[in-house]
């Protein structure tokens, strides 16, 4: 099928570019590593202290959240690369070819999903090395599906925004303004179960709250948790909508 | 005909205001020719080209490109055309060969076919030596050659070149002209935009002059220049310019007089006289000036250039725009 072939072409070009600049992939791991070693130890006393949200253990609660955070930031910033490509005429050149418009978007998005998966696995391994984390591998792999949806969706949003804003200067504050509150009320740092009721009610409307909760449940092996199907449904629908939106932006981009 | 347009229009909305970038363009481009769209910056050249190459949709009007209706069969148009934008089309950590193979594959070639064609194109654009280096190490001329190479990977019938020599040094520019002529010899039609008069004159079989979104003249460079007049006499007068102007306009061998503004530094105003035969007109003009006690600061006779064509159609010089 043409769209599959085209997506593969765009994907392999994007992956090749990623691999030529491995520095980036490592840079994206640095922030979570800081959190892992400089923040996570603060949570140790939570273990077994009956604090709400920490029933699975301190590290077992924190690491899945950290992975979602990495997916959030890693994908939200992929638009920056696209702005450079827009400026250099790369996107324009491809839009004049008969390549599928959807593929131009999907190929790039999927390459971000791929790198996020590798970063997540690297982070789980690093966290396991600290010796404080019980890893339940089937849960980890199921959790990766949630991570993939998160990365897929945010990469599409970021690419769409890049096409609208066309400048790094406008892009950085926009992404920060969007992602910071989403991150804070998703319970990445501390579980929302610790939050006052009003903040919990706000979090109920944050799709990433479900992503974080579902990741924690899957990581701990609670496969039948309600959060799992809720997160899958919410992220799934949003992903479809946002990918469709970004594809339209790609087809009409005025570079 | 490779391109035929009727009433092509493009209106952009910018901060609530409507800007008419292109206001009803009729164009015809024939097979195998080099067609130029000449005009100052902001005249609508690039917008016209972007519409014809499927990048933006026309607001109004109709166009057929390579036999396909632009509005209904953009996909078919894309198969038959190549396009090289002002910004080029490559960047950074990719090699020329990788990009060419990728480009071929985007046009549906098999990997093997794309690799063979890439080797061929690299050879003919003298890029073989740099084929496996990252594009970011290329000089301006090398990068521009690669941009064109990408545009013709799939052997299009028609190649769009948006300002192909802007920003190139004179030597690379001459190379680029040779490339364009070479492509034409091999049967590729070329549609290019330029704001360089010499480029339009030297390179194009036919051209259209565009200003404020409208075509003001169309034809071969020679036809266009003939339309202006046989010759142009430029007379610089230090004072009493309007008197001199009336004097010249009264002569029956002078077809038209264009009076320029006086130069603020020297006070000299240049009058451009369009005459059939400059050589025989000169003595008469000098006698008339003498009789009126007017002494010219300079007098110059030249064949009309495309700038004269532009000047006559728009009342402005294209050279002054830069």
From TrEMBL, chain A:
A Pfam match: ABC2_membrane
Predominant cellular place of this UniProt entry's protein: membrane
GO CC term (a single one): ATP-binding cassette (ABC) transporter complex
TM region positions: 21-42, 62-84, 105-129, 135-165, 177-199, 227-246
Residue ranges constituting the ABC transmembrane type-2 domain according to the UniProt record: 23-253
Name by which UniProt lists this protein: Transport permease protein
Protein family according to the UniProt entry: Belongs to the ABC-2 integral membrane protein family.
Any one GO biological process: response to antibiotic
Topology versus the membrane: Multi-pass membrane protein
From TrEMBL, chain B:
GO cellular component terms attached to this protein's record: plasma membrane
Top-level taxon of origin: Bacteria
Gene3D superfamilies with a match to the protein in the record: P-loop containing nucleotide triphosphate hydrolases (3.40.50.300)
PROSITE patterns listed in its UniProt record: ABC_TRANSPORTER_1, ABC_TRANSPORTER_2
Topology in membrane: Peripheral membrane protein
SMART domains, alphabetized: AAA
Keyword line: Antibiotic resistance, ATP-binding, Cell membrane, Membrane, Nucleotide-binding, Translocase, Transport
Location (main, coarse): membrane
Residue span, ABC transporter domain: 3-237
A molecular function GO annotation: ATP binding
Subcellular location: Cell membrane
Pfam families assigned: ABC_tran, DrrA1-3_C
GO biological process: daunorubicin transport; doxorubicin transport; response to antibiotic
NCBIfam families given in the database record: drrA
Family: Belongs to the ABC transporter superfamily. Drug exporter-1 (DrugE1) (TC 3.A.1.105) family.
The protein, known as: ATP-binding cassette domain-containing protein
Naturally occurring in which organism (per UniProt): Glycomyces albidus
Lineage: Bacteria, Bacillati, Actinomycetota, Actinomycetes, Glycomycetales
